[in-house]
Amino acid sequence: MKKFFKHLCIGISIPIVTLCFSSLVFAWSATTLDHGNAKWEGGESKNSYLYSRVMDLKRDGIRYHATVWVKCDNGSYNYKEGKTTDLGSNGWIQVRKKASHTNPFVSEKAGYKDFGRVK
After folding, report:
1. CA-to-CA distance for 11 and 18, rounded, in angstroms?
2. Which of 26, 91, 93, 103 is deepest in the core (most CB within 10 A)?
3. pLDDT in tens, 31-90
């Protein structure tokens, strides 16, 4: 009986620990765009704001347009269309929304769409 209980505890604790670590890994994400000339970042900040942003990384005369969006687990949605105006945080396209954390079974999401170059 003790071996059964030990195996049961290990069998339950491994998936729970794995789930906790995977949620930490996916709390923030970044993707390079246009062969490293631009970048998208999204996730949840330390003060519980969801964010999504596209930024220009090189001063090459090319600007980018995109729609960035965030969606809370309660279904509320926020987005912003725009163009980058400068390098990095000086000219990024960004949207933010307070995270709701109301439904533990639905993840909060951030992303971008309609990314392209503007000359």
Report:
1. 12
2. 93
3. 899 999 999 999 999 999 999 999 999 999 899 999 999 999 999 999 999 999 999 989
CA gap 56, 66 in Å, rounded = 11
Is residue 43 within 8 Å of 53, Cβ to Cβ? no
Assess whether pLDDT exceeds 70 at residue 17.
no
- Answer for the pair 84, 39: CB distance below 8 angstroms, yes or no: no
Lookup result for tokens 């969606």 = 71
Residue with tokens 């969801």: 50
Tokens (6 digits) for 20: 């906790």
